[in-house]
Amino acid sequence: MNEVVTEDGHPARRIAAEWEQHLQFSLRRSLHSVRAYMATAHRFIGFLGSHRGERIDRDALHKVDIAEIRAFLADRRQSGLANSSVAREISGMRAFLRFAGVDPVPTIKGARVKKSVPRPLSPQDAVALAREVSEEASEDWIEARDLSLLLLLYGSGLRISEALSLTAEILPLQPTLRVMGKRSKIRIVPLLEKVKKAMEEYVRLCPFPFSDKSLFFRGAKGGALSPDVIRRTVRKARYHLGLDNKATPHALRHSFASHLLGRGVDLRSLQELLGHASLSSTQIYTAVDAAHLLDVYRAAHPRAENK
């Protein structure tokens, strides 16, 4: 099959353009996400062309090895890319290679950022983790399930056990969610509009019927979704992204709490949102840096922009 050669001589630019259409119209990624992915893809193509001194086409992409990926990341760091942004660059590069049919995609770990105290995931790393997990899914509905589940953990501060115990009684989704926590204690948590849309997309694609008593998040065969399945996929994704081994599903809940505290939410309100029995459990979040959860949803989360 002949590939279209673009102005700079790299047929791979055409593959990137096809990927852009796929991201925007098939996967319905936000414009922000599409722009970020495309920037990474074109940087990678341009680097390979200069590095090899040849045109980059589909065959050339299939020959990419771990040494070239390391060289690309080293070049990006020399251009001023911070270690905290490496995960996003790796995620975008790997997603592009997967779209081009590279299998398996070479795996590389990004540089870890040393921290003196435990910290929540940064907004960028939380987003990269959600994307990486969902894009590894074997089916579209599982991709939508994993994405909506991780965004729910981050956006509403749920424990994974709480999210997986939700039933279809939550449908149709409302701006708040009624959650049963530890000791059968009921609490009301916010359901941000972008998380709600991701969950609705999962409902639309899920091949299994939803009755009032059926579990909301379903396993591959329609039964209960095991938390171990999610933990394994998160473990694999954090390895690919070079994230710390503390980047777990529970870390997303931790990030929710830390970011809200940084926005000025008082400890008593945060205690209610998290379902903590005592205020002392909530006070651990006063030791972490402030962040801006609402800004994250406007600027960084998948599908964060209106269609």
TrEMBL record:
Matches recorded under PROSITE patterns: CB, TYR_RECOMBINASE
UniProt domain Core-binding (CB): residue ranges: 10-101
Gene3D superfamilies: 1.10.150.130, Intergrase catalytic core (1.10.443.10)
Keyword DNA-binding: yes
GO terms for biological process, alphabetical: DNA integration; DNA recombination
Keyword annotations from UniProtKB, A to Z: DNA integration, DNA recombination, DNA-binding
Pfam families from the UniProt entry: Phage_int_SAM_1, Phage_integrase
InterPro entries referenced in this protein's UniProt entry, alphabetically: CB, DNA_brk_join_enz, Integrase-like_cat_sf, Integrase_catalytic, Integrase_recombinase_N, Integrase_SAM-like_N, Tyrosine_recombinase_XerCD
Example GO molecular function: DNA binding
Record-annotated Tyr recombinase domain positions: 116-298
PANTHER family, A to Z: PHAGE INTEGRASE-RELATED, TYROSINE RECOMBINASE XERD
Record protein name field: Integrase/recombinase XerC
Native species: Zymomonas mobilis
